[in-house]
């Protein structure tokens, strides 16, 4: 809206003049040119309260508010103008021009407003329509209310004097105002001094003033009580504003009425003096109507009645563009442009009112219709719409709309929506132009730039003769120019498109300015892609005006960050690239040039046949570049023509082994591009792999066959250490031709364990003019990783990431193994394990061994290391190592360590864990570990069960009546008690896995209870060589056990604790004899109960006769009577008592003898039904068998030997 | 002799915001595309801003299930972009020239007469046809969608199918406003 007078286009709000508050008087015209002067002698109020009040008034100024109903609703808005004490109003009537002094005093000329077309002094005289001065008068000069501030003194002595001064002053102002003819309201505010006391006296003084001045106490006279707080001060200001607001609105309504009356009058008043110049035409009545309508509209705006304003404006607009006003003005007349300007102002004000009310679609339609009507006018009556002037206006018109929308600050545009929905008054389903949805100002600025560009195009096509500055061309040419070019709100052709060496319009600057405004809008909306487009335009404009640095400042970041590259809009990328290159060439930015040239090699872009596509020529012949640039490009930043992949052949490798890997570099450069020669390719790895460097050597096995597309070169790399970093270096030809894929194969040793990943390849290019570094980061792609073979067969690698290798630690080559390990180890055996430590490394090793035995009740383990003389010193070296030093083991040699575990008593399972720590003499720093674990199962070799049965003691029982005198009493305890004989049968089984030799089996008496003596006798004899016991076989050993009570009187029960000791050895040449002791359950001997023992013996004289003796023992102190019954049997005949009674005295025994003659041979006979019953207790005594007999559940069985045996 | 809207450009944009296909159509008075291919590319790219922010607001409000984005924006009085997004993130953009075609007798200048507007949803038919054509393209076993919108999120190849291009051409040329609107 720059082209329009600010007052013409600004929104109107009631004007309030504040006088006498604060010392500052903003504009001090000293009131000389204005004849109506309000002056006062009283100094302005300058108290603290006054300052606060002033600030509140200034804050309530509504000049900067957005143009919408929302901002204005509910608040009374004023344009606040603060003046000092004095103020002058513009003259209401024009003075008579000097030339037309009254000739005749009778016909006194009628004086009009100095702004009216009727006053000869006015610029509008005689036929002008309107100019901005009129609005200025109402908006800036003539207030709707004039507020005067006075101090209300507290000094009682001076009060009367002061009050009188105030009264005079008020009355004086009142007079001036009423004489001026303006209906400005006078408001008086009295500010009391701090110390005043509210009293009736004050009331009286106020009443007095009021009376004397005739001011209404409600609406015109305000009194600020003393000592008001800041809140009260603010409320006071609010009260004043809200009280006077309706009055002020009323003021503007009166003005409206006045205008309307004049409009309705329908006659044109005669001018003060008849026109003497120009066409001597006066303004037509239609023209006057336009004036009045405009005024009505403006006053309605003052009252914030936008609907009324629109109506007035529309009516005025229609009249203006109707047949009688605009059409009648000749296009060469300056009034034509004035009328056109007025039409624009009408339209702008209509648009503002529509936007104010939220009629966004109506506003767009109005905007379009105004443009169409004006174009129609220009085409028909003006100089046509194909001129630069028209485009300039179109641009202006779009900018105006953008600014109006911005000023209206729609709440919807604060969010994302780019355009507003159609307002509710538009019927749903109506056919709408998309543009009719009001778009945000950015779009309008964009539209404006298009017109500005069109304007420039038209301007540049102006023929040269029209472009010469005035004065240098013949008059005829000037006049023809005046008819050809539309200069409405835009310069003459010689400025629009100046000849070389003349100043004129900087079109690019205009375009950039508008673009920048648009850019801000799009930025706010987050339309980054649209922004990029505008930035490119802006940069192009900068280049047009040769502001190369400016262009570069825009293009460089755009080039780096643009979304087009990421998203593959190659033509857009290309455009930006060329623009950047062009700017960079001029600005001397070598880096950008090289970067662009690098990118433009890619065949994605359009091929320009005239372009060299040779990186080495990038900076040739450019004098702007002062220093040799170093360019670093990353793969993400450019759409590079070189792409690289890196693959390891195998996913795993081991330290010390060679690993093969391939770098495949594909060039997708333009087919016409020159080959690119790299100086170096540096491969960086993450993890344990050292960097690899490829250097270019000019004529190394260069693939000169241009037909193929893939070249495999095997690169031999050597290790070097450069600045403390070791790396591998290989040399090969590094020339990349368009369309080729070059594969470099490496074979590098792996040195460290851990994961390794190829991270990036850095291509270094080194020319005389620049250094280039292109960093390609390897990223997983969707294309499968490929391993190239020699015949260019490719192998797909099915791996997640073929650029990663897992390097396993070096396998230890120190072997640990046991020599002569037995299948099974047994308890009670000393276990000796022989561990061989074998060094299979290529170098000598210094080793330490650690052995642990784990399990329950682990015995201490003993290591025996063969000691040599050199061990001692070697072991010193490895003090920090744990374990037993084994010393130096030569390569391929071994050491045998003996682990001896003492014998254990109980079977158990132990874990033997061994760990050898060693380092090679060639690399003492790296410890290598070798560990081994073994389970050692120690089992018991034998298990046994026992049978303990009674026998008849052969010796006679001692008699109670015999007394034997002890011979050597005291030295040895002589047993005198009952002696008994027992037989202990031990059946032991071998649980071993191999044959064992049992050397001896014996019973050991561990303890006796119950006062007995005891000795044993081994019955089973084992040969000298021992008894070979096979696994799982059962062996028997019998022992006789003799017990005797020490005292005859002792009849208590006695027990015997014995154990079985088996002496055995392994079946081998030299094997130690081990003793396994097996526990025997406690044996019960010597009962007081009577017992019956049966014995059998075979007659030596009479074949087949068997003696069967039954011995009844009575060890008790009682006299016992037994009944004996012997039942006959089918199997044998017998002789002896069949039925008898036997009486046994205490401590006696008796044997009954039967002779049996069995009827069978070679089998067990029985059961022998011999029943012995205790007569007294009526209890059958069980007969215990002795040797040669057995017991089944019915009775005793006797073995009858077969005939031949007897 | 009135100017009616016609399609000036049909664009298919992939999931990675990469252009898959662009067809330009001539506009009335000169019978040539209204803008250069580059300008149309930039125009299509600029709609991505709107797709992105609308999807964001749709995701939060739960709207926009149908995929039709309606009017994206009007670039100026003549050109307006309409958009559609498929479930797989492929976007169809139709740029309409509001004065692209002259109907009635005589050639005319293209400026004459009031132009016809568009109703809400009049572009649906176009998008439906475009989607059908795209689905047909996807059914081709030799068409690998991943090549065109790689999961790495960067760029992608363009559609080279001649049949698809013909389909687009047919759709763009046959569309006239007012058909199939509801």
TrEMBL record, chain A:
Residues 262-284 are annotated as: Disordered. Residues 275-284 have a biased composition (Low complexity). Residues 631-1201 form the Gryzun putative trafficking through Golgi domain. InterPro entries: Gryzun, TPC11. This is Uncharacterized protein. Pfam families: Foie-gras_1, Gryzun. The lineage of its organism: Eukaryota, Fungi, Dikarya, Ascomycota, Pezizomycotina. It comes from the Eukaryota. Residues 335-602 form the Trafficking protein particle complex subunit domain.
UniProtKB/TrEMBL annotation, chain B:
One of its GO terms (biological process) is endoplasmic reticulum to Golgi vesicle-mediated transport. InterPro entries: Longin-like_dom_sf, Sedlin. Gene3D superfamilies: 3.30.450.70. One of its GO terms (cellular component) is cytoplasm. This is Sedlin. It comes from Hyaloscypha variabilis (strain UAMH 11265 / GT02V1 / F) (Meliniomyces variabilis).
């Amino acid at each position: 809206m720059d082209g329009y007078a600010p007052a013409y286009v600004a929104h109107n709000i009631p004007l309030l003049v504040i006088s006498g508050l604060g010392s500052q008087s903003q504009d001090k015209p000293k009131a000389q040119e204005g004849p109506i002067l309000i002056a006062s002698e009283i100094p302005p109020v300058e108290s603290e309260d006054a300052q606060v009040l002033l600030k509140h008034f200034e804050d309530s100024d509504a000049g900067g508010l957005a143009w919408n109903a929302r901002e204005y609703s509910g608040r009374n808005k004023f344009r606040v103008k603060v003046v000092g004490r004095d103020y002058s109003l513009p003259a209401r009537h024009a003075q008579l021009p000097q030339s037309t002094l009254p000739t005749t005093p009778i016909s006194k000329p009628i004086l009009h407003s100095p702004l009216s077309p009727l006053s000869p002094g006015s610029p509008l005289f005689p036929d002008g329509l309107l100019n901005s001065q009129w609005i200025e008068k109402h908006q800036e000069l003539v207030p709707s209310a004039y507020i005067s501030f006075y101090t209300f003194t507290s000094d009682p002595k001076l009060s009367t004097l002061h009050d009188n001064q105030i009264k005079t002053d008020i009355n004086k102002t009142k007079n001036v105002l009423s004489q001026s003819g303006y209906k400005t309201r006078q408001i008086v505010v009295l500010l009391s001094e701090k110390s005043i006391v509210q009293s009736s006296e004050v009331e009286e003084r106020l009443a007095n003033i009021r009376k004397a001045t005739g001011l209404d106490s409600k609406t015109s006279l305000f009194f600020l009580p003393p000592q008001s707080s800041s809140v009260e001060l603010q409320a006071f200001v609010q009260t004043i504003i809200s009280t006077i607001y309706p009055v002020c609105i009323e003021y503007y309504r009166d003005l409206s009425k006045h205008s309307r009356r004049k409009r309705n009058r329908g006659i044109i008043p005669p001018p003060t003096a008849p026109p003497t110049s120009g066409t001597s035409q006066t303004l037509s009545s239609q023209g006057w109507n336009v004036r009045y309508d405009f005024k009505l509209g403006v006053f309605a705006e003052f009252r914030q009645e936008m609907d009324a304003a629109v109506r007035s404006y529309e009516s005025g607009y229609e009249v203006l563009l109707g047949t009688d006003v605009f059409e009648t003005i000749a296009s060469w007349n300056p009034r034509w442009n004035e009328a056109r300007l007025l039409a624009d102002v009408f339209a702008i004000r209509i648009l503002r009112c529509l936007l104010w009310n939220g009629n966004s679609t109506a506003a767009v339609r109005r905007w379009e219709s105004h443009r169409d009507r004006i174009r129609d006018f220009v085409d028909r009556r003006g100089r046509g719409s194909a001129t630069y002037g028209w485009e300039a206006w179109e641009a202006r018109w779009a900018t105006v709309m953008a600014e109006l929308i911005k000023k209206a600050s729609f709440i919807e545009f604060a969010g994302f929506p780019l355009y507003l929905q159609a307002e509710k008054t538009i019927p749903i389903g109506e056919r709408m132009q998309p543009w009719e949805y009001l778009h945000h100002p950015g779009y309008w600025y964009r539209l404006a730039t298009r017109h500005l560009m069109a304007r420039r195009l038209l301007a540049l096509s102006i023929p040269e003769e029209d472009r010469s500055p005035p004065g240098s061309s013949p008059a005829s040419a000037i006049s023809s120019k005046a008819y050809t070019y539309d200069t409405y709100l835009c310069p003459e052709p010689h400025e629009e498109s100046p000849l070389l060496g003349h100043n004129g319009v900087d079109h690019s600057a205009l375009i950039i300015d508008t673009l920048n405004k648009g850019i801000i809008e799009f930025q706010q909306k987050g339309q980054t892609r649209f922004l990029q487009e505008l930035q490119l335009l802006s940069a192009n404009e900068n280049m047009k005006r040769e502001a190369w640095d400016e262009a570069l400042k825009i293009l460089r970041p755009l080039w780096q960050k643009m979304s087009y590259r990421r998203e593959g809009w190659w033509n857009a990328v290309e455009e930006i690239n060329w623009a950047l290159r062009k700017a960079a060439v001029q600005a001397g930015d070598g880096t950008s040039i090289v970067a662009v040239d690098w990118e433009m090699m890619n065949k994605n872009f359009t091929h320009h046949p005239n372009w060299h596509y040779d990186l080495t020529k990038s900076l040739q012949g450019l004098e702007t570049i002062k220093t040799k640039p170093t360019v670093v490009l990353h793969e993400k930043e450019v759409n590079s023509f070189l792409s690289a992949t890196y693959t390891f052949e195998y996913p795993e490798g081991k330290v010390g082994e060679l690993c093969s890997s391939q770098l495949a570099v594909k060039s997708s450069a333009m087919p016409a591009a020159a080959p690119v020669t790299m100086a170096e390719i540096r491969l960086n790895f993450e993890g344990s792999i050292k960097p690899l460097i490829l250097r270019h050597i000019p004529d190394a096995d260069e693939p000169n066959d241009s037909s193929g597309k893939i070249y495999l070169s095997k690169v031999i790399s050597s290790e070097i250490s450069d600045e403390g970093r070791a790396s591998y270096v290989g040399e090969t030809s590094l020339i990349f031709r368009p369309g080729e894929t070059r594969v470099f194969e490496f074979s590098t040793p792996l040195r460290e364990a851990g994961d390794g990943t190829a991270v990036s390849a850095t291509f270094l290019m080194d020319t005389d003019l620049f250094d280039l570094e292109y960093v390609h980061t390897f990223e997983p792609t969707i294309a499968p990783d490929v391993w190239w073979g020699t015949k260019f067969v490719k192998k797909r690698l099915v791996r997640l990431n073929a650029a990663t290798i897992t390097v396993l630690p070096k396998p230890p080559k120190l072997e640990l193994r046991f020599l002569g390990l037995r299948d099974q180890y047994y308890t009670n055996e000393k276990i000796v394990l022989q561990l061989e430590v074998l060094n299979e490394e290529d170098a000598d090793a210094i080793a330490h061994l650690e052995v642990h035995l784990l399990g329950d009740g682990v015995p201490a383990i003993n290591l025996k290391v063969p000691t040599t003389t050199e061990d001692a010193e070697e072991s010193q070296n490895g003090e920090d190592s744990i374990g037993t030093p084994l010393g130096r083991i030569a390569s391929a040699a071994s050491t045998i360590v003996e682990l001896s575990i003492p014998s254990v008593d109980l079977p158990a399972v132990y874990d033997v864990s061994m760990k050898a720590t060693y380092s090679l003499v060639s690399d003492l720093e790296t410890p290598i570990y070798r560990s081994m674990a073994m389970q050692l199962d120690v089992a018991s070799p034998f298990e046994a069960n026992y049978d303990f049965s009674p026998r008849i003691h052969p010796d006679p029982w001692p008699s109670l009546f015999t007394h034997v005198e002890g011979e050597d009493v005291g030295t040895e305890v002589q047993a005198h008690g009952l002696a008994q004989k027992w037989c202990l049968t031990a059946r032991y089984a071998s649980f071993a896995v191999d044959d064992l030799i049992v050397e001896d089996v014996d019973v050991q008496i561990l303890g006796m209870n119950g006062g007995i003596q005891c000795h044993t006798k081994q019955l089973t004899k084992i040969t000298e060589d021992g008894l070979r016991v096979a696994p799982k076989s059962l062996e028997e050993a019998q022992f006789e056990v003799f017990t005797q009570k020490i005292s005859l009187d002792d009849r208590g029960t006695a027990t015997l604790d014995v154990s079985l000791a088996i002496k055995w050895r392994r079946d081998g040449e030299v094997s130690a004899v081990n003793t396994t002791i097996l526990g025997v359950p406690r044996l019960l001997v010597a009962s007081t109960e009577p017992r019956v023992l049966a014995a059998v013996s075979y007659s030596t004289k009479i074949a087949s006769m068997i003696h069967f003796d039954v011995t009844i023992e009575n060890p008790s102190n009682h006299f016992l009577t037994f009944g004996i019954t012997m039942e006959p049997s089918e199997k044998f005949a017998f002789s002896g008592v069949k039925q008898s009674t036997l009486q046994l005295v205490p401590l006696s025994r008796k044997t009954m003898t039967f002779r049996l003659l069995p009827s069978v041979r070679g089998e067990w006979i029985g059961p022998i039904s011999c029943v012995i019953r205790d007569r007294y207790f009526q209890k059958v005594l069980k007969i215990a068998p002795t040797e040669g007999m057995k017991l089944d559940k019915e009775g005793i069985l006797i073995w009858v030997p077969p005939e031949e045996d007897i | 002799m009135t100017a009616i809207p016609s399609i000036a450009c049909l664009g298919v944009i992939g999931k990675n915001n990469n252009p898959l296909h662009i067809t330009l159509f001539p506009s009335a008075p000169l019978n040539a595309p209204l803008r250069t291919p580059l300008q149309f590319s930039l125009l299509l790219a600029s709609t991505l801003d709107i797709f992105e922010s609308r999807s964001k607001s749709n995701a939060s409000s739960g709207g926009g299930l149908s995929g039709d984005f309606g009017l994206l924006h009007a670039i100026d009085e003549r050109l307006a972009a309409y958009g559609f997004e498929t479930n797989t993130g492929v976007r169809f953009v139709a740029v309409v020239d509001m004065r692209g075609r002259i109907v009635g007798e005589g050639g005319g200048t293209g400026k004459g007469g009031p132009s016809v507007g568009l109703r809400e949803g009049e572009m649906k038919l176009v998008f439906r046809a475009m989607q059908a054509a795209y689905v047909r393209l996807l059914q081709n076993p030799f068409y690998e969608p991943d090549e065109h919108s790689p999961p790495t999120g960067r760029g992608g190849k363009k559609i080279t199918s001649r049949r698809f291009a013909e389909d687009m051409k047919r759709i763009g040329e046959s569309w006239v406003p007012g058909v199939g609107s509801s």
